[in-house]
Design goal:
Chain lengths: 382, 69, 266
């Protein structure tokens, strides 16, 4: 239908996906290049009875969405590098207390204030390990606006299914670039709602006792079950515990619920991999340049393929290993100093055959940049 | 019957919760309370109690309950 | 005792030291809830980190034990997402005013309907007696072994300046007044701050030769006066107790409801 076709920025595609997924509460703080997400939601959320609040900083923004999630709402915040750094503390809280929430990081160059208006993918490892302590993490990304929309919906679905924060790791190019978005009809994309407990009031409810399928039904704050939520290690009622069995059981649960589902959570796209003897592995906006190279080379009869990762964490080790198994060379295309390169090396049979095509100067990686690396691998001069 | 001041029925001190801080003993206006050998509050002179409940209200351990008639 | 209906008895005796004023704050708060006849299901207690924050574990409400300094930020999300809930946020002085200082002033400014209780014992108790922004000059603390040169805040003045629409101060010696102020704060439509001076005999009292818990409470009695008292003019060092601010201003959630109406009309 014509009214569902839009020409938008990636940040707006993210907003459209979030609203489609049922976002009800957003708290945020202005920061380039993510501010459009907040601006659009300030306008749109109240039109559907949702809530928007601009907080005093990023620390409080993520705290506020966690509070709102506990009252039974789908929640999100959006930020960029420096703000994402500030959010790590409460991100760990959301992991520990198992609070569904979505955190958008539209990446810019860092460290520190870095290069606010230019593109980077320097926060990939921060998304995985920025939180202190052992933990697992879900982080998704996308290379075009249709996928930004779908991955945003998927972020909410994963957050609700596994009671976990989910990071959407976009980048400045995706965030600000304009392209076509077709918003699906209602019901076209499956949505996961909040799983509420069926335990009646007055009956002992265990907010932290997983069901057989691993899910933990929730009870909204303000409802009939009064329980405790804490960032301390806690028992199945949510009360602090330092019992070694409880501590061990909880950390295993928090890590296993994500890591054991790495294949289930793995979203990716593949192009010309069936017979590829060289495989590009990329994600986010750089995957567009990578795809351009692959299509060009294919036209010239070269057996080049692309594996585009959409789930970055948990790292899809099995999929990367399988898809790269027949390749004589693997080139990781990313806009950092090789953060995913190391993960790909760990995943494949022959790490010495994995190479990096990157840019770290704030300029978007071009097909030529990638082709230069391919020529080097082939022993040709640049 | 005219509404008079509440009359004491019993002092209840939860010995498991009392930590013997002595706040109740110190501030009792009628010097009713004392700490025993185990450092737990008890009503040494219950007949002097005027049931003002200041001990109950100021007990940090929620260990005192002044039952009135 | 009816206040027992509002606690999780299985966790008693609580973890606070003998004579800790925080227990009296808990006691006063429970009486306020009882006297107002509030429903346990409608109360959300959000706390941060520190001795004070452990209060949440002991009350039979919806309890959210969060991060150091950030309780008001979590509470803002709870309240704005479900404005019909009664949100109470007990905090320590370091929790509320050092690491949480920015959230504190902005919650005051925003005038969002919740009750902040600052359990001010002028020290970091849980971590071992370091000075807080409330310790004040000349105090001895584990991180001020030669006496403290760090000046103190006046919590109530700051809350007033930041725009809180209900601001009151009392002490745990004046426990009945604490209950009265908490009740008024609960009933107030807007951001309410109740500062309650509380004793830490273990760290503050011991290091500053202030005696035991009862002696420290005597100090509260001797060194505080009702707001507007002539004694304060004669001795400016006295600390005023009472309600400093009580005014009606637009409350944040109510104002946001108007925004929703406006947005929906298009």
């Amino acid at each position: 239908m014509s009214q569902n076709i839009k020409f938008v920025q990636g940040n707006e595609a993210c907003v459209a996906g979030a609203l489609y997924a049922g976002l009800q509460f957003f708290a945020g703080y202005p920061i380039t290049p993510s501010s459009e997400v907040a601006e659009l939601l300030a306008a749109r959320l109240p039109t559907q009875g949702g809530k928007f609040i601009q907080m005093e900083d990023e620390l409080s923004s993520i705290c506020a969405i966690i509070g709102a999630s506990l009252t039974g709402h789908k929640v999100m915040t959006a930020t960029s590098g420096p703000g994402f750094s500030l959010m790590q503390e409460a991100l760990g809280y959301a992991i520990m207390a198992e609070i569904p929430c979505v955190i958008v990081n539209v990446q810019r160059g860092g460290p520190s204030t870095g290069i606010p208006t230019q593109v980077s993918q320097g926060d990939v490892m921060q998304a995985r390990w920025g939180v202190h302590g052992d933990h697992s993490m879900v982080a998704l990304t996308a290379s075009n606006h249709q996928d930004v929309f779908l991955m945003t919906v998927e972020a909410f679905n994963i957050a609700e299914t596994y009671r976990t924060p989910v990071v959407l790791l976009f980048d400045e190019v995706i965030g600000h670039m304009r392209e076509k978005l077709v918003v699906p009809q209602e019901g076209e994309v499956q949505l996961v709602g909040r799983l509420h407990t069926s335990v009646k009031g007055g009956v002992d409810y265990h907010p932290y006792l997983p069901r057989e399928d691993g899910r933990l039904p929730m009870s909204d704050f303000g409802g009939v079950h009064r329980y405790n939520v804490t960032g301390l290690y806690h028992d199945m009622w949510g009360f602090p515990s330092s019992d070694p069995k409880v501590v061990h059981g909880l950390i295993r649960h928090l890590v296993d619920k994500i890591e054991n589902r790495a294949n289930l959570l793995a979203h990716y796209k593949e192009y010309f991999l069936e017979d590829a003897d060289r495989v590009l592995v990329s994600y986010g906006a750089p995957a567009r340049s990578a795809l351009h190279v692959v299509k060009n080379r294919r036209a010239r009869g070269e057996r080049l393929g692309l594996l585009e990762l959409q789930t970055l964490w948990p790292f899809p080790t099995d999929i990367v290993r399988e898809k790269c198994a027949r390749a004589k060379a693997v080139v990781v295309v990313e806009m950092n100093m090789g953060q995913m390169l190391q993960e790909v090396k760990k995943a494949v049979e022959k790490p010495e055959q994995v190479f990096l095509a990157n840019r770290i100067d704030g300029v978007f990686i071009t097909p030529t940049d990638i082709q230069n690396i391919l020529r080097l691998i082939q022993g040709k001069g640049v | 019957m005219a509404k008079g001041k509440p009359k004491l029925k019993a002092h209840h001190v939860n010995r498991d919760w009392c930590k013997g801080c002595g706040i109740c003993v110190h501030f009792c206006p009628k010097n009713v309370l004392e700490l025993d050998e185990a450092e737990k509050a008890f009503a040494a002179r219950p007949d002097d109690c005027i049931a003002c409940k200041l001990c109950e209200i100021r007990c940090p351990d929620l260990a005192i309950d002044i039952e009135t008639e | 005792m009816a206040v027992k209906d509002y606690i999780r008895e299985r966790f008693f005796p609580h973890m606070w030291c003998p004579g800790c004023g925080h227990g009296i704050v808990l006691n006063s708060l429970l009486r306020a809830v009882e006297q107002l006849g509030m429903s346990k299901n409608e109360i959300v207690m959000v706390s941060g980190i520190g001795c004070s924050s452990r209060i949440g574990g002991y009350v039979d409400f919806h309890t959210l034990h969060t991060l150091h300094g950030r309780a008001l930020a979590f509470a803002t999300g709870v309240k704005l997402s479900r404005p019909e809930l009664n949100v109470v946020v007990p905090m320590g002085d370091g929790d509320a005013l050092a690491i949480g200082g920015n959230h504190f002033i902005h919650a005051c400014r925003r005038n969002i309907g919740m009750t902040a209780i600052v359990m001010n014992n002028r020290i970091y108790g849980m971590t071992g007696g370091q000075f807080s922004p409330m310790s004040g000059l000349g105090i001895s603390a584990s991180t001020a072994p030669y006496s403290n040169i760090d000046r103190a805040f006046d919590v109530s003045e700051m809350a007033r300046a930041a725009g809180a629409t209900f601001v009151a101060r009392t002490t745990v010696y004046h426990a009945q007044q604490a209950t009265e102020f908490i009740k008024k704060a609960f009933l107030h439509e807007g951001f309410a701050v109740v500062e309650i001076l509380s004793q830490c005999p273990t760290h503050f009292g011991r290091r500053n030769r202030q005696g035991g818990a009862a002696d420290m409470m005597e100090w509260f009695k001797e060194n505080t006066v009702p707001v507007g008292s002539k004694k304060k003019l004669e001795n400016p060092a006295l600390i005023e107790r009472g309600i400093f601010v009580q005014k009606e201003e637009p409350e944040y959630c109510s104002e946001y409801a108007k925004i929703v109406d406006k947005a929906m009309r298009g």
